[in-house]
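Recall that a protein's primary structure is simply its ordered list of amino acids. Everything else, from secondary elements to tertiary packing, is in principle encoded there. The following example makes that idea concrete.
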Amino acid sequence: RKNLNPVGCDGGSGGGVDINRNFDFMWGDTRGSSADPCKLTYHGPSANSEPETQALVDYAMKLFPEGQRKKKPEKQKDEAFGEEISGFYADIHAFGRELY
């Protein structure tokens, strides 16, 4: 579930960052992630801090030009995209009884 980044948890076996919770969209939302490095859902020290996350962000930025991205996605998450949008990327996964 977590990467091999040796952050936090006193260097013990609980280290690492949950890549699914490291993206900048709603980063740090404690309804599905934790600021505690020893937790499985640790979101990392900052948004997009992990190389795995940054690689996916870079890919998405190339895939969808700026004109097809929302300026402030957290504030616009309930707004529909316009008809000029040619596609979308969705990441749906579950943890426990939660669906994100």
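The CA atoms of residues 25 and 73 lie 7 Å apart. The mean pLDDT is 81.
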